[in-house]
């Protein structure tokens, strides 16, 4: 740990001195991106080591480092640098989704499918309904009125639509955090598989629900045509799944016919898929998830081999991805809405907890898993952030404060969720249970 | 075949480079107040850029396949001629407005990727500077290294300075009024360009060693290989001087230091980066983590150097030299990892060189024979001096001079580094000439050397190393950093 602290101090010193070279308002093309990438990667990894020494997830260290180094606090990594680094996000999402897909073996999951469906199927709707009801009722609570200016003066229908949209985004889970922590703790077992199944399927369902809520709100506020929005979102979802399936077929053919430099191929696929998806308004997450699912479940190609080959790429990608997510959290905007944000985060947690307990009973979840399963639902990250930004773009009249509020909720859950999940993985006894398989050779 | 770990290195380094380029190619980037680095990016058709660059990077990895290297060895060609020319052509094609992949904006925005590549190459160059290996060199080898570095540098710098003096359009400027102004303009631009070409003249391709191993025996080959690797250092040293004395971003920076201080800053940065990398990789818990840390330290070293307007090639070479001389049991693996990505990076630099290149400017082509003549002359004179002052066991001066003539790919990286560092509206035409000179010079040198060698029969590639040769130095080891045999003091006589 002393080494990590020393190294963290050294890289901080380096970037602080480098940033003093140019006046605040000046930036250089390119160099800033390379400098920020190097700093974020090294500093996040050291921070990960430091926090893991105090039994916190490395991921929390990455997030905290990003937040502290980002524009909100020390500004070592400027807004422009964060923007440059965001391209790593798409690749990271592609990689994470590909890993998730290849780890979701539906045949293995079948015995737990009922539990997965029940937990996800009860807790997410419960969270949406309860959070929406609370938001809808907020104007009647005088103490909250200063924080909900965007809701005041709306008709009941409009307020209901806004509440629904917000509640759907607030209900988002985080497959990325779950996968990253399962990898970090080398966990394996029924709890890990159930957790993965729940968050992946629930987030998929949330995307569909959001498309409906978005269309409803658009028609209520007279923005575009509701049906057109629904069509766009259906194209977004099914288009992503379709393109992902095609990529999966190409992947399988490549691995069967050529089977050389698979990691390079996978990385290139994730990169191109991420960029192409963004340009074509598709979801890199859904695309790569479908690709991974297809590889694991519909082909005789070993998904495990792919995961092993990708291992060297995952460490830096995860570190940078979560550090950039931390850097993207805006303290100043969050500060003005703290009471509302904390309230929503608390209501969300309570609703998910209640929904999860109910779902566990309905799905007849094994007793051994019951104490830990609610912890998987707390984290939020990529999808929630993406949807919050979409809300801001889609609804200019009220989207801005709503988006800030939603990002604030994400910020809290991003910090708290990984700690709870790591704790659950360790206490469930599944941490460290994954067999250590050396990377395959000679491909 | 690549080991997975090293494959991971390739994947990460290339992907990072790809990311860097595309990150900066996002519309809206590139709006900076630094005059020499400006270039506001318009909508550049990001998807096309992504796909085009992805294709180029995949091709670069394929062109680094061992089969291509074996073919090169058999034909005695450098990477520039064997697989580099297609990349150069691809760069020219990508630049074409109808293709529009490597437009001016995209090349400007490619800076983070290029910087990372320069940093990586810098580490590779520096890692050749292993003091323990240098100690094993025969006495007086340094005089050959010095002669083979300094003379080509001087001959090229002087001859091209004079030629640039005649060709440079700067002289048409109205501000040039009298000898005082003329001297100032010459010192400001033409001398800098000539020094940069001089820096490209010193490095020699390692193919020379393979050729000599067949023509003159293993000992000579081993010595020549060491000389070529040390020649690279001369180019880096000159780049350090150029960057310190011709500051690219002084007008907007908050630091106002004298030129000599920048030289010390460069040296200090290299030292800090070397120590940082060392402490980082020593504490790595797994190979994957070591890889990530290596990437991070290369990125921060290259990025910070670029941010400060110092050449990443130079600072990272210093860092690499320091790193390789510190005790670390995984150093051999680290070197192998770094060297493995070297070739794809060279090919990418050739691609960028193609995009920066304006082959229609006749001045560049005029400079090519001047450059080649000056450089080969410098190498041959250096070989004669080296034969007199150097250790026993060297091949005859004509063979040595010819063998050290093919240009190292590091010279292409050097000129691309130079051009990207000083790229600006007023100097663009001259920088393009330099590109033509360096690229054309590499090809012409190769042709000249092949023709002369075949005519002389001295560097023919048919003969295998003599049976029972003390230092067989098989060709596949020549490009690597395989440690030399332990008992080579005084050569083989």
> What is the general shape of chain B?
globular
* Order of secondary-structure elements of chain A: HHHHHHHHHHHHHHHHH
Largest interface: A-B, 61 and 76 residues
Under the CATH scheme, which class of chain B? Mainly Alpha
CATH superfamily of chain B: Na+/H+ antiporter like domain
What is the CATH-assigned architecture of chain B?
Up-down Bundle
Helix content range of the residues of chain B, please? Answer: over 70%
Strand content bin of chain A: under 5%
Q: From the helix content, strand content and strand pairing of chain B, which structural class follows? A: mainly alpha
* Mean model confidence by pLDDT of chain A: 80
- Name the quaternary structure: heterodimer
3D structure, described in words:
The complex is a heterodimer of chains A (443) and B (493). Chain A is an all-alpha fold. Chain A is 73% helix and 0% strand. Chain A folds into 2 domains: 2-21 and 28-86; 89-317 and 331-427, Na+/H+ antiporter like fold. Chain A has 17 helices and no strands. In chain A, α3 (58-69) packs parallel to α13, α6 runs antiparallel to α7 and α8 (175-184) packs antiparallel against α9. Chain A is globular, with a radius of gyration of 21 Å. Chain B is mainly α. Chain B has a single domain, classed as Na+/H+ antiporter like domain (Na+/H+ antiporter like fold, Up-down Bundle), CATH 1.20.1530. The chains are: A mainly alpha (443), B mainly alpha (493). The interface between A and B is large, with 61 and 76 residues.
């Amino acid at each position: 740990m002393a080494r990590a602290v020393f190294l963290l101090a050294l890289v901080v010193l380096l970037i602080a001195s480098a940033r003093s070279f140019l006046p605040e308002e000046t930036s250089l093309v390119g160099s800033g991106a390379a400098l920020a990438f190097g700093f974020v990667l090294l500093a996040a990894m050291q921070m990960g080591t430091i926090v893991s020494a105090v039994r916190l997830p490395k991921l929390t260290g990455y997030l905290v480092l990003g937040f502290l180094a980002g524009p909100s606090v020390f500004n070592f990594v400027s807004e422009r640098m964060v923007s440059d680094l965001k391209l790593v996000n798409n690749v990271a999402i592609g990689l994470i989704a590909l890993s998730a897909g290849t780890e979701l073996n539906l045949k293995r999951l079948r015995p737990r499918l009922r539990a997965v469906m029940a937990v996800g199927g009860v807790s997410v709707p419960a969270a949406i309904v309860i959070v929406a009801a609370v938001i809808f009722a907020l104007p009647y609570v005088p103490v909250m009125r200063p924080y909900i200016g965007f809701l005041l003066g709306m008709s009941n229908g409009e307020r209901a639509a806004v509440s629904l949209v917000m509640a759907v985004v607030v209900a988002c889970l985080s497959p990325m955090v779950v996968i990253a922590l399962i990898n970090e703790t080398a966990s394996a077992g029924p709890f890990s598989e159930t957790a993965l199944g729940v968050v992946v399927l629930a987030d998929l369902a949330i995307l569909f629900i959001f498309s409906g809520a978005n269309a409803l709100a658009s028609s209520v506020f007279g923005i575009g045509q509701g049906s057109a929005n629904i069509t766009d979102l259906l194209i977004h979802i099914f288009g992503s799944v379709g393109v992902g399936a095609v990529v999966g077929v190409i992947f399988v053919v490549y691995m069967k016919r050529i089977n050389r430099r698979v990691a390079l191929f996978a990385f290139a696929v994730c990169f191109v898929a991420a960029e192409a998806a963004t340009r074509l308004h598709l979801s890199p997450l859904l695309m790569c998830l479908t690709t991974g699912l297809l590889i694991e479940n519909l082909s005789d190609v070993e998904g495990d081999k792919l995961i092993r080959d990708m291992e060297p790429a995952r460490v830096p990608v995860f570190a940078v991805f979560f550090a950039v997510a931390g850097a993207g959290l805006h303290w100043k905007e969050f500060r003005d809405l703290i009471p509302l944000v904390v309230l929503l985060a608390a209501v969300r947690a309570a609703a998910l907890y209640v929904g999860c307990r109910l779902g566990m009973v309905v799905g007849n979840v094994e007793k051994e898993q019951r104490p830990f399963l609610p912890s998987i639902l707390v984290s939020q990250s990529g999808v929630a952030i993406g949807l919050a930004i979409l809300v801001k773009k889609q609804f200019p009249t009220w989207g801005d404060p709503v988006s800030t509020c939603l990002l604030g909720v994400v910020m809290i859950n991003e910090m708290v969720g990984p700690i709870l999940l790591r704790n659950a993985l360790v206490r469930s006894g599944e941490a460290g249970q994954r067999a250590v398989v050396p990377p395959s050779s000679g491909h | 075949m690549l080991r997975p770990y090293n494959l991971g290195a390739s994947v990460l380094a290339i992907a990072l480079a790809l990311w860097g380029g595309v990150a900066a190619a996002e519309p809206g980037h590139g709006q900076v107040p630094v005059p020499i680095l400006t270039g506001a990016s318009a909508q550049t058709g990001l998807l096309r850029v992504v796909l085009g660059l992805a294709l180029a990077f995949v091709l670069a990895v394929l062109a680094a396949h061992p089969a291509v290297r074996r073919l090169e060895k058999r034909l005695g060609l450098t990477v520039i001629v064997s697989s580099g020319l297609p990349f150069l052509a691809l760069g020219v094609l990508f630049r074409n407005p109808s293709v529009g992949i490597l437009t001016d904006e995209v090349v400007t925005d490619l800076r983070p990727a290029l910087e990372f590549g320069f940093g990586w190459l810098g580490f590779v160059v520096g890692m050749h500077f292993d003091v323990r290996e240098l100690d094993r060199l025969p006495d007086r080898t340094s005089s050959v290294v010095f002669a083979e570095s300094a003379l080509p540098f001087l001959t090229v710098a002087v001859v091209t300075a004079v030629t640039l003096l005649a060709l440079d359009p700067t002289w048409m400027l109205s501000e040039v009024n009298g000898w005082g102004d003329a001297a100032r303009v010459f010192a400001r631009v033409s001398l800098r360009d000539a020094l940069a070409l001089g820096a490209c003249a010193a490095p020699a391709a390692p193919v020379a060693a393979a050729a000599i191993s067949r023509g003159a025996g293993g000992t000579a080959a081993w010595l020549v290989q060491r000389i070529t690797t040390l020649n690279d250092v001369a180019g880096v040293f000159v780049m350090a001087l150029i960057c310190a004395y011709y500051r690219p971003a002084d007008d907007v920076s908050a630091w106002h230091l004298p030129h000599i201080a920048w030289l010390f800053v460069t040296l200090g940065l290299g030292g800090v980066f070397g120590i940082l990398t060392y402490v980082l990789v020593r504490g790595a818990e797994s190979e994957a983590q070591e890889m990530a840390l290596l990437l991070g330290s290369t990125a921060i070293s290259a990025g910070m150097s670029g941010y400060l307007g110092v050449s990443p090639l130079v600072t990272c070479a210093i860092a690499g030299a320091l790193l390789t001389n510190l005790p670390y049991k995984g150093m051999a693996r680290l070197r192998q990892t770094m060297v493995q990505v070297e070739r794809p990076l060279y090919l990418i630099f050739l691609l960028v060189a193609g995009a920066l290149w304006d082959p229609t400017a006749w001045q560049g082509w005029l400079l090519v024979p001047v450059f080649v003549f000056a450089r080969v002359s410098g190498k041959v004179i250096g070989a004669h001096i080296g034969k007199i002052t150097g250790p026993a066991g060297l091949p005859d001066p004509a063979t040595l001079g010819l063998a050290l003539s093919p240009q190292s790919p590091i010279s292409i990286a050097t000129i691309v580094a130079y051009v990207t560092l000083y790229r600006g509206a007023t100097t663009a035409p001259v920088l393009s000439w330099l590109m033509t000179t360096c690229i054309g010079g590499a090809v012409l040198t190769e042709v000249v050397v092949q023709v002369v060698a075949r005519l002389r029969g001295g560097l023919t590639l048919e003969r295998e190393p003599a049976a029972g040769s003390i230092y067989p130095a098989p060709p596949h080891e020549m490009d690597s950093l395989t440690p030399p045999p332990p008992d080579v003091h005084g050569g083989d006589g």
